[in-house]
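Q: Predict the bound structure with nicotinamide-adenine-dinucleotide.
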Amino acid sequence: MQRGGFVNQGDVKGPVLIIGTGLIGTSIALGLRALGFSVYLDDPSPTTLALTVDMGAGLAWDSSAPMPELVIVAAPPDVCAQQVTDALQRFPDAIVTDVASVKQAIADDVCQSGSDSKRYVGSHPMAGRARSGAAFADKDLFYGRPWVIVPTEQSTQEAVMIVRNLAIDLGAVPTQMDAHDHDTAVAYVSHVPQLVSSLLAARLLGAPSHALSLAGQGLRDTTRIAQSDPRLWTAIVAGNAGPIAAILHDLEDDLADAVERLEQYSQGSQVGAIGVISDIVAAGNRGVSRIPGKHGQAQRSWAEIEVLVPDRPGELGRLFTELGQAEVNIEDLTLEHAAGKKYGLARVQIDPASILTATEELEKRGWRVISVGESK
Ligand SMILES: NC(=O)c1ccc[n+]([C@@H]2O[C@H](COP(=O)([O-])OP(=O)(O)OC[C@H]3O[C@@H](n4cnc5c(N)ncnc54)[C@H](O)[C@@H]3O)[C@@H](O)[C@H]2O)c1
Ligand SMILES: O=C(O)C(=O)C[C@]1(C(=O)O)C=C[C@@H](O)C=C1
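A: Predicted complex:
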C-alpha cells in the first residue's frame, strides 16, 4: 500500500471502514483513497452511501468485505459512542476512532460500555465547512489543520500511533490532549463562535431589506458559519454544554455592562460609556492577535491588494495565474460580491516585500488595482 511517506510504527496496512459518510467521513475517505488505501463505507442513509460510492470514496461495506484494521466513526456526536462500542465488538482486531467535535461524553460512554476500549482513541480534525453532507467533501480538507488526538487512560500506544498516522497521512498536524482540555478548548474556538455567529445572524431577521442591501465583508466574516446545520450543531452543543455555558456567562456579563453604559450614554450621561466602547474594541484587538496564522504560526501582517475581478468564468483563475507568473505567493484571499454587479472585489494578501511587484505586474496585465495597504 502507498502511504503518505510516514512512519513504520502504527502503520495501517489493511482496509479502513468509515461509518458515517457525510462531509467529514467522505473527505477522509477521498483523502485515503488518493493515498491508495482500501476504503469501505457505511451510512444509515442508502442515498448518502450511494452518493459517496459514486464519488469514488470507496466501496459500500457488507459482511463479505475483509475485516477492517481501522474503523473511523464520522457520525453525529450523539450517536458516536454507540457506533464506536458496536465497532469494537464487531471487529475484535480493529483500532477504532471517532471524529466528533466533542470528546469527554463519548470517551466516558465507551470506557463504561464493557467493550475492549483500549483499542479506542478519540480524535477531532479542526477543519470543516459550514455545509454538511458528502457533496461538500474535499480530500484536502485537513491539509495543514490541527487534528486533536484524544486517548483515554486505557488506549494502547499502538492505537494512538495509528490514529496520529491517519491525521498525518491526510496532511493534518496531530496534537494530543485529554478529553477535558479538548472540550474546554473547542468551546472557546469553535462552539461559542458558532452560537455567537448564529445569534448575530438571527438578529438580521428583524432588519429592513434596505439595511441588508448594504451588507459588506464585516457582516459576511462574522456570519459565515451561521449557515451550519442545526441538527449537527444541536448535538455538538448539547455534548459540550458545561464549558460552553461558562464562556457564555462571561459574554453575558460583558454584554450587560456594554448595554448599561450605552443606555446611560444615550440618556445623556457621559460617565464611562466612551471608555467601555474603547475597552471592548481594544480587548478584541488583543484577543484576535492571539489566533495563530497559517500553518499554526504566530499571526503576522500581510500586505493587501484590492483588485476588481470581472464576474466572468476563469477570471479569478487568471488572477491567480498571473500573480504566480510574477512570483507573488498568495497568503490569503477574500472575495466580495455585490448583488447585480459586473465585478467582484478580491482582497489578496501577500508578503509586504512583493507589494510593488504585484501592483506593477497586475496593472501591466490590465487589472484594476483599487487599493494597496496593510492587512492582518
Ligand atoms: N462539519 C464540521 O465542520 C466538522 C468538523 C470536524 C468534526 N466534525 C464532526 O464530524 C462528525 C460528522 O460531521 P459531518 O459534518 O460530516 O456531518 P454530516 O451531517 O455531513 O454527516 C454525518 C453522517 O452521519 C450519518 N449518520 C447519522 N446517524 C448515524 C448513525 N447512527 N450511524 C452512522 N452514521 C450516521 C448521516 O447519514 C450522515 O451521512 C460529527 O461528529 C461532527 O461533530 C464536523
Ligand atoms: O470552517 C468551518 O466552517 C468550521 O466551522 C469548522 C469547525 C470549526 O469550528 O473550526 C467546526 C466544527 C468542527 O468540530 C471543527 C471545525
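A: The chain has three domains: 16-177, 184-288, 300-375.
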